[in-house]
């Protein structure tokens, strides 16, 4: 009897040690309270790898397998991702918020629910030219393994959106997530891979580095097996990707300005500004970050913001909060340093820091500032928006241009004057330009179009879609196959 017990204990100990030695023993995996199903993918921990090399190798094998599958199979893989994001959005959204501690639960959940709006295989096409000399066809082929870097602001949504786009185009991917959002990203990858393996028999369409660092990001940048880089993040990573020897699609930072002129529908402008800027506590790269409003409608506009979920701070209170949110540059001529502890915080938490209690339901703090407030020039990523008074729309556009820093990301206008809209659209030269709606309208949420969480700005691909992740291949049939 005692012997039997000893044997049982030994077996258990051996199993535990084996698990600790295996890839699932990485801290990210071990600490995942989410991992409800035992991890035992044939290749490791369902796509979660501690070493970049292993992650790329697995994604390369998966790519070769995917090449033998049909477009219908790609669609089935994508529908696994969409289904998990929509049916498990509450649990996954909550886990993302608990891990990253930035943003709002309702929007963390919604950002997963709407993955169904990211385009998939229906975006694929081929182009044909037929004429006297026959038929030429252009087909949109996959690259292979894509290296994706994802931000903390939307860790799992960016990853899921990238999977939908990239797999639709026939690629597989290896992801270096933001360290502060790595646990939820790894859990998403496990769930996606399990479901995809059951659906189409391939295990590692998406692989991920369990403990991401700048070094692992660089390993991905340099890895021979990675054919293309897709980087979504702030200025540092955007610069690093642009300096890389590989082709990089860069979804970089923004600081979207809003201009409101005297012809605008002020109630719609106020509601739109609150809706966009308060979304996930202003974590969106497209979110309204500063407003330039013309003198004649300045006061009624600010009044309308209060009617739409905003809480107005005095000029002194705005300055006080700026003093906590930013510290002086570390080197002469450098940028102000953003206090990361305030990024994505609730409006009520920001208000408390300056001794203000806001009513329940307050979504956004706002107030009048001068044009040189740090809230104007910096990408604050928190629900506090400065409003700057300007002489007329042209002066507002000039200030907006300066505040955008040439990122070429997003700008917004509220106006009924098409000349003013045209003037601003031309001057700003941004990837997204929204008229008379919240920023989200440019991503198909209340405007026409489709969704992506990676908006390629400095490299010019725009709102990414499956065709963004393809290589064009052309074949020509000489003198035949024109049938008319
Ligand atoms: P971040 O730049 O701090 O991090 C992004 C990712 O890059 C992380 O995975 C991080 O670990 C990695 N990284 C950072 N520096 C690196 C370097 N030198 N080399 C390699 N990897 C590096 O950004 P964040 O705080 O996670 O996200 C917010 C920023 O991202 C904002 O500036 C926002 O505007 C931008 N963003 C842009 C888009 C877009 O579609 N254009 C979408 C979301 C976020």
What do you see in this structure?
The chain has a seven-stranded parallel beta sheet, sandwiched between helices. Helix 17 links the parallel strand 16 and strand 17 (432-435). The protein is globular, with a radius of gyration of 25 Å. The chain is an alpha/beta fold and 484 residues long. The protein is 41% helix and 19% strand. It has helices at 2-21, 27-30, 52-67, 71-87, 89-100, 105-113, 155-168, 182-200, 214-222, 235-242, 266-277, 295-306, 315-325, 347-353, 374-377, 393-404, 418-428, and strands at 48-49, 126-131, 134-142, 145-149, 172-176, 206-209, 226-232, 248-251, 257-260, 290-294, 310-312, 326-327, 337-338, 364-368, 384-390, 410-414, 432-435, 455-456, 462-463, 470-478. Helix 4 (71-87) packs antiparallel against helix 7 and helix 7 (155-168) runs parallel beside helix 8. Mean pLDDT is 93; it is low at 1-33. The structure holds nicotinamide-adenine-dinucleotide.
């Amino acid at each position: 009897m005692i012997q039997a017990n000893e044997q049982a204990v030994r077996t258990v100990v051996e199993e535990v040690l084996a698990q600790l030695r295996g890839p699932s023993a990485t801290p990210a995996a071990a600490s995942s309270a989410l991992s409800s199903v035992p991890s035992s993918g044939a290749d490791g921990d369902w796509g979660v790898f501690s070493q970049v090399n292993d992650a790329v190798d697995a994604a390369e094998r998966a790519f070769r397998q995917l090449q033998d599958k049909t477009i219908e199979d790609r669609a089935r893989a994508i529908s696994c991702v969409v289904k998990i994001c929509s049916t498990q959005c509450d649990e996954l959204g909550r886990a993302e918020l608990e891990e990253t501690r930035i943003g709002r639960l309702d929007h963390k959940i919604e950002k997963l629910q709407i993955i169904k709006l990211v385009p998939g295989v229906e975006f694929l096409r081929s182009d044909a030219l037929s004429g006297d000399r026959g038929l030429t066809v252009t087909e949109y082929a996959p690259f292979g393994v894509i290296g994706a870097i994802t931000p903390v602001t939307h860790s799992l949504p960016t990853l899921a959106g990238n999977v939908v786009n990239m797999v639709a185009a026939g690629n597989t991917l290896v992801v270096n997530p933001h360290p502060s959002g790595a646990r939820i990203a790894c859990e998403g990858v496990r769930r996606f891979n399990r479901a995809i393996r059951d659906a189409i028999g391939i295990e590692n369409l998406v692989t991920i580095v369990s403990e991401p660092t700048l070094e692992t990001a660089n390993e991905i940048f340099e890895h021979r097996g990675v054919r293309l880089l897709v980087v979504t993040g702030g200025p540092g990573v955007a610069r690093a990707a642009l300096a890389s020897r590989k082709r990089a699609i860069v979804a970089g930072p923004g600081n979207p300005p809003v201009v409101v002129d005297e012809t605008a529908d002020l109630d719609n402008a106020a509601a739109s500004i609150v809706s966009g800027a308060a979304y996930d506590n202003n974590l969106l790269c497209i979110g309204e970050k500063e407003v330039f409003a013309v003198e004649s409608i300045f006061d009624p506009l600010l009044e309308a913001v209060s009617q739409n979920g905003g809480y107005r701070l005095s000029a002194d209170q705005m300055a006080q909060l700026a003093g906590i949110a930013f510290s002086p540059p570390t080197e002469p001529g450098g940028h102000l340093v953003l206090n990361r502890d305030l990024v994505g915080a609730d409006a009520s938490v920001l208000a408390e820091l300056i001794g203000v209690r806001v009513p329940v339901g307050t979504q956004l703090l706002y107030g009048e500032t001068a044009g040189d407030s740090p809230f104007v020039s910096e990408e604050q990523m928190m629900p506090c928006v400065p409003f700057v008074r300007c002489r007329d729309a042209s002066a507002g556009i000039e200030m907006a241009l300066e505040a955008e820093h040439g990122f070429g990301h997003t700008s917004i206008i509220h106006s009924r004057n098409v000349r003013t809209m045209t003037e601003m659209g031309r001057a700003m030269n941004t990837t997204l330009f929204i008229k008379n709606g919240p920023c989200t309208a440019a991503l198909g949420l209340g405007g026409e179009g489709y969704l992506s969480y990676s908006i390629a700005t400095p490299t010019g691909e725009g709102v990414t879609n499956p065709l963004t992740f393809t290589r064009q291949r052309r074949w020509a049939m000489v003198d035949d196959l024109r049938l008319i």
